[in-house]
Amino acid sequence: MRVTETTQEPPSSPVTVSSFADEFVRQLRYEQGVDLNFATKDNLYQALAGTVRGFMIDNWLATLRTQQATESKIVAYLSAEYLLGPQLENALLATGLESLARGALTSLGLDLDDLEGIEIEPGLGNGGLGRLAACFIDSLATLNIPAVGYGIRYEYGIFRQTFVDGRQAEQPDTWLSKGSPWEFPHPDMAVEVGFGGYTEQVTDETGGSRTRWVPSESVSAVPYNYMVPGYGTHNVNTLRLWSAKATNAFDLQIFNSGDYEAAVRAQTVAENISKVLYPEDSTPQGKELRLKQQYFFVAASITDFITRLLPDDFALTNLPDRVTFQLNDTHPVIAIPELMRILVDERGLDWDVAWDVTRASFNYTCHTLLPEALEVWSVELLGRLLPRHLEIIYRINEQFLAGVRAAFPGDELRARRMSIVQEQPERAVRMAFLATVASSKVNGVAALHSELLRDKVLNDFSGLWPEKFTNVTNGVTPRRFIKLSNPGLSELIDAAIGTGWVNDLERLRELEPFAEDASFRAAFRTVKAENKKRFVDLLATRDGIELSSDALFDVMVKRLHEYKRQMLKVLHVITTYDRVLKGELRAADLTPRVVTFGAKAAPGYRMAKEIIALINAVAKVVNTAPELEGRLRIAFPANYNVTLAEKLIPAADLSEQISLAGKEASGTGNMKFALNGALTIGTLDGANVEIYDLVGADNFFLFGLTEPEVQDISDAGYRPGSYYEANASLRGAIDLIASGAFSGGDRTTFQMIVSDLLDKDRFMVLADYQAYIEAQDKVDVAYADQEAWSRAAILNVARSGFFSSDRSIRDYLDRIWHASPVPVVK
Ligand code: 26W
């Protein structure tokens, strides 16, 4: 059941239930040509979306007008991914029209929840990085900051995951198959983007010499605009996603040559650029098409910004006054040489002036610590695809290295270490280094991460430019991840501390005294119980998974990656099972638990896919083992996405954040769980560190090695076998896998996992196993005291206000962007 909005509604519009219903029917008839009596669900959804969208447009246009008129500084967020999640509910929340829409639909014999249920979310991202971008544009709009999000309108988003015999299979995500009512295509504002070709020297109007890039092919970048409404404000910002279209000129040329087939083929090649999101997370594929995607969207974005958002006579030396380009990881970093090219080659600026403008315009956020996730592009590929950009990168590097050599005379090793162009194993451009050299500020995404970036990954650079490095801890939008997803909790908070907290999340602190209030705790438990029921019902219909809601809900949802250690969670489940089998534990004494996993593996990541198969195999055995008497269940719904997250997170009691210390940059799921009253079991990694500090040791199950300990162990030579030999319970769990207990007696099925754990175990699962099991035993004990558990859960909510993405954005504004709010007045 949805709750009607009570807070932060924009001033009431003259809309009524009947005028809303009229507009809905008009949309159906005059936009789609469909009569209400014959409308399909898709027709109805489109009409509803069209109706709601209509109520945002005036504010959107007013926002654009105001921002242009005030000549304010604009945050241009460059991101290859935006994992937006369902749009309708968010638009209803922002416009404050939910209850009206519900009433109008009811008057027509229709049901809002029913229509919301058919939306296919735009999955234009892989995981944390893309979802963060979506939270950030929400906060930027809510804080009235002039901002535009630039990205790619992938025709196919993140793949749809299914399980076939417990193994992951991927299906294309056809999110656009029924059209997208939230977008405004603008072929009239297309931008041409070139590739390939050569460079030449030409004489300009003043008789000087300039370089000119002559591309061999070009594609047209067509913008699709999406509205990004703020909450509790009239401001509506823009998300502009680019779609590739073959240029007419190019087509025509080949077509006229008489080769029709070649013309069509050329079109396919051009349009492939925005065809599909690369599903790789943390392991760059080094694919030519991926580099094309990156250049395609940033080239279009920069031209768009300069030619459409700035006045015609704008002096580009003043660019940094009007824009800050934020690079969301290295994917958009090719924007740096592109801006240099425009300034120097096209606008005739002096190189040094252009370099100052460029450095003042860009900032870079790094989202990883894994060395394999740091993008490099081979010189061969860059030279072929973007010859002028490669020349520019070389010149930047030359100048930069001259500076390094001047600062550290004779230290050639250092110069080689810091070079933007690496020589081994192949000549390639290190995009993170280019970003660092060319940006005003470089930030990590949690305190620990920024520290490790500064002191390890980019240590040479922070030595040279200490003031360049800063931290902005990630955050999540409370609109989507509390207000929308957890209406029960939102109402309870409203009743306790009043409204207004959604846009001022530190106000959740006022809940602290309520942790001591028995009736509030009871109400809090009721909400959690209802959320569990809602989730159990959803899984029954969505996946045919039958669960009891009367259990500890233990949840691990995130991309499947070895460093995140889903394997450790599986070992805990197996250990519990093994203890019962061996009679060390009575099933009757088990705290009933439902362990829910949600995880996609990159299609080419073999070990991750093996782990998925193992989880499903263990689930099959454990879920039906008579010895366990139904007290331990695994649920692994396929295709975890934002839609599912919104239902799952509010139902969780226990949040699994168990990566190896020093590997998870931040995590953002961890924040969503804490804000929804789950207790964390976690390591001192990423933002867990800050969650732990804020919620307090009593309200967090901390375990595991610290980052320096990890470093020491690996320096001394990590031997996973020694942990296996020394720990009988660990041995029991691993032996059970190896014995074929989860593979119908076949000992080879999970051999890859077993031998990797025993021989390599790159992420020290075995080293942290014992501490994890002990922490889980503490969880069981703690959960038995429901009053104490609720108190801790409420304190988690009360003390997690820091993790609003509004706070993150304010930190970006203070430390990096220095842009100001421009509220739209009506
Ligand atoms: C091209 C290969 C590739 C693809 C994606 C390399 C790196 C990435 C991303 C940087 C991985 C990513 O999504 N990082 C996550 O970013 C989140 C938002 O800051 C953090 O919360 C996660 O800890 C981090 O893993």
Task: Describe the secondary structure blueprint for this structure.
Blueprint (H helix, E strand, L loop, with lengths): L16 H15 L9 H29 L4 E5 L3 E2 L4 H8 L2 H10 L4 H5 L6 E2 L3 H15 L4 E6 L7 E5 L2 E5 L11 E3 L5 E5 L2 E6 L5 E6 L2 E13 L6 E11 L1 H9 L3 H12 L16 H22 L9 H4 E6 L6 H12 L4 H11 E4 L10 E3 H7 L1 H21 L4 H7 L2 E2 L5 E3 H8 L3 E3 L2 H11 L1 H6 L4 E3 L6 H7 L2 H11 L20 H26 L8 E6 L8 H16 L11 E6 L7 H17 L9 E4 L6 H7 L5 E4 L11 H7 L3 E4 L5 H8 L4 E3 L4 H10 L3 H7 L1 H11 L12 H9 L5 H20 L1 H13 L6 H13 L9
Parallel strand pairs: 1-4, 1-13, 4-12, 13-14, 14-18, 18-19, 20-21, 20-23, 21-22, 23-24, 24-25
Antiparallel strand pairs: 2-3, 5-6, 7-11, 8-11, 9-10, 11-12, 15-17, 16-17
Helix pairs in contact: 1-2, 1-4, 2-3, 6-33, 7-8, 11-12, 11-14, 13-14, 20-21, 21-32, 22-23, 22-29, 22-31, 28-29
Ligand 26W binds next to helix 6.
